[in-house]
Amino acid sequence: MKLARTKQHRNPEDPAATGLVSPVPAADRFSFADLLLEATADLGTRPGRLLMTLAGTILGIGALVATLGFAQTTAGQLARQFDAFAATQVIASPATARNADGNSVATASLPWDAVERMERIAGIEQAALIAEVELRDGTVTAVPVNDPSAVPGAAPRVFAASAGLVDTLEGNVRYGRLFDSGHDLRHDRVAVLGNRLADRLGITRVDSQPSIFIDGLPYAVVGVFGDVQQRTELLESVVISTGAARSDFGLSAPGEVQARIVIGAGPQVADQAALSLSPDDPERIDVAAPQGRSQLAGNIQADVNLIFVVMSVVVLLAGGVGIANVTMLSVMERTGEIGLRRAIGATRRQIAAQFVAESVIIGLLGGILGAAAGVFAVITISLSQQWTPVLSPLVACGGALLGALVGLAAGSFPARRATRIEPVAALRGA
Length: 430
What we know:
Helices cover about 50% and strands about 15% of the residues. It is built from 15 helices and 13 strands. The strands form two sheets. Strands 1, 4, 5, 6, 7, 8, 9, 10, 11, 12 and 13 form an eleven-stranded mixed β-sheet that branches. It has a two-stranded antiparallel ribbon with strand order 2-3. Strand 2 (about 95-100) and strand 3 (about 105) form a beta hairpin.
């Protein structure tokens, strides 16, 4: 009984009383804050080396962010430069097939109300009919008398069109006016000339009511137009109304429908135009419509982006090598410190974490400065060119994080080497 009472009064927290041979190890008190303190303690001691180390990362991240920013900013600019006009033009024409002689012949014909049908489609702003007129004698002159001594020249082409063709092609009137739907309905003999043909015929004004003679028939010139970018052949041609072409030259059907669409509506218009013009057999109508974006502009932008991205990656790799070299040099210079820390209980993981954290901080700092430099470059150049700067926030944030990843990769090998340093050898060498 006494022995039992004695056991009951023993202190259970006493290691000797519990019979344990070794005490419980103390908890690791090396916190994340301590890791950051150790990792940043050596950064400010050599500012010159730090700046040289950051230079490669700043240049690489800055070039990469600027490249992506310029790609986003110039996307609209390239589209305007290369195909602002082509991206808004659609042409619908009858499908063709080869006959026995090997010539292409139309397998269908467009309706005369094709303009009204096309303009009912969402995305089409304006449309017009156009067809080339086959002349009987093939003569177009500015004088009613044929001069036998004159050297014969090639007659200009004659096109029939509905009102609004020049507006559809985004051209402009140099002087005079264009014929309208009233001229078309009345079959009036009026014509408009391309500016190159007008210069060739010596017609520089229309207030004197000049006329031209098409197959001997007089047509009053009411205007001269220019700047039709896609169909430049019209600048050297005569354009008359479809009504006059049907009455004087027996035009049987429109050749094409030219339409101006809003940017990006090409695929939708291409699907609906053929069905609208030929509901019973849409396959007999060919529709040439632009894609959602210019292929040429996209190819050029992709090539330019590829060049700059490759250059950015090369510079970024150079920055990563610089971080690795500086971290390795830091490991060699601090061999005694590493051995001392190992001797007083620091683990290999703590040593590795210190140098990895140091590299990540250098890389993150370079990424932040590089991303800021890239954003500044995009804004400055865009404003100087009167562009609207466009840059996704994810690109800037991603640039900073990419710098940290470069630092992580660059610091992995030096950190692994630091963990292999033995305390005795380090202290002996120190």
